[in-house]
Design goal:
The structure is a single chain. Helices cover 24% and strands 20% of the residues. By secondary structure, the chain is an alpha/beta fold. It has a six-stranded mixed β-sheet, with helices on one face. The protein has a five-stranded parallel β-sheet with strand order 8-17-9-10-13, covered by helices on one side. It has a four-stranded mixed β-sheet with strand order 1-6-5-4, with no helix packed on it. Strand 9, helix 3 and strand 10 form a beta-alpha-beta unit. Helix 1 crosses helix 7.
């Protein structure tokens, strides 16, 4: 245990949520490397934005909100968002001297001695009194399973592997998923592909008009309700619907966004439905979303029977030392900023009071 390094707070992840948390720690008087440390598994700044496909330019990004304390100004809307945001995050880390350690893989978070947490990483072990977990979802793409999937002779890829539309030139492409990524992929791929087919589990919901603060609060409340019940969170977008912009209108008018219900099986040459309909395909793109990357927290046994981690604000209900930022209702750029501030406020209170770890209930006396 001699190589264990002690800090007050460990921040895991240096995307939007992690940087927001680190900023508020710094602003509250915590010193990086002395009082807190930020660990990030990526080789450089940018979080999941580093992985975005080149055709997702900054002008196409929906709802990118600036990090606290430093606006993103003058960005070229025609540049890839991966470049714009990575440069912004890099400048932000340097401006506030956050000293992010990378690449560092967090393997497990365990109970330590004296009410502290042990964070085991590829760069040694850290002991902390509190943890801000901001690991996001990009590392856990969700692949649904359908009969016959392994027999498909074409190519299958997830949004996380999407290379851009040119890679699908002359091919027959099935896109699965009713979210923003699925519609973006279809609209990009259609001019290059021989044919496209859109398949979703539920009919897509398109949202007309502006999305005001009241509607936003109502959407976030629905996501919060799930995490309070210990259920896996749904994305905020899943309850807000898809904005009906000019590109979507064109896609609907020209048939690119002509949606089919979910197929029941995959065949060597495509997909099939029970009514006998079939579509031949060279590629299946699974735009089926992501799940929270939380496996490293498994030793703490935070998951509820429903499969999620029940949280109150940003705190794990089962352990107030653990704050999940960018999880559930805060899984948006503006939500991550607010959650980072809330988490630090609670952590300051917890550290002032002690470990904050509730004592176990005494065992009932034997009869």
């Amino acid at each position: 245990m001699n190589d264990v390094r002690e800090v007050e707070v460990v921040v895991i992840g240096a995307g939007q949520a992690g940087l927001a948390g680190a900023y508020h720690l710094r602003r509250s008087g915590f010193e990086p490397e002395r009082d807190f440390v930020v660990l990030d598994h990526s080789p450089g700044p940018g979080g999941a934005w580093r992985q975005r496909w080149p055709s997702l330019t900054y002008g196409k990004v929906h709802g990118m909100h600036a990090l606290p304390g430093m606006e993103l100004t003058g960005a070229d809307p025609d540049r890839p968002s991966s470049e714009v945001v990575t440069e912004y995050f890099d400048a932000y880390e340097r401006a506030f001297d956050l000293r992010v350690r990378r690449p560092v893989d967090v393997k497990a978070v365990r109970e330590g001695a004296g009410g502290r947490l042990l964070v085991e990483t590829s760069d040694g072990t850290w002991s902390a009194r509190a943890l801000i977990n901001a690991t996001g979802t990009w590392d856990r793409p969700f692949w649904p399973r359908y009969p016959g999937q392994e027999t498909f002779r074409g190519r299958q890829l997830h949004t996380a592997q999407y290379p851009g539309p040119e890679a699908f030139a002359g091919q027959r492409v099935v896109v699965v998923g009713g979210g923003a990524s699925g519609t973006q992929h279809l609209l990009e791929i259609a001019p290059y592909a021989a044919a496209t087919t859109w398949v979703t589990r539920r009919p897509p919901v398109f949202r007309e008009g502006p999305f005001g603060e009241d509607a936003g609060r109502a959407a976030v409340a629905l996501v919060e309700e799930r995490v309070r019940e210990g259920l896996p969170p749904r994305s905020v977008v899943s309850v807000t619907g898809l904005p009906l912009n000019d590109a979507i209108r064109r896609g609907l008018a020209d048939g690119v966004l002509d949606r089919l219900p979910m197929f029941v099986r995959v065949t060597p040459d495509g997909v099939e439905w029970d009514d006998g309909r079939r579509v031949d395909a060279d590629v299946i793109v699974w735009a089926t979303g992501f799940r929270a990357a939380l496996d490293h927290l498994a030793p703490l046994r935070l998951r509820e029977p429903g499969g999620g981690i029940r949280i109150e604000g940003t705190r794990a209900a089962a352990d107030p030392r653990i704050h999940l930022v960018g999880y559930g209702p805060s899984a948006s750029t503006i939500g991550a900023n607010r959650a980072g501030r809330a988490a630090v406020r609670d952590i300051r209170r917890l550290l002032a009071e002690g470990t904050g770890r509730p004592e176990p209930e005494p065992e009932p006396a034997a009869a």
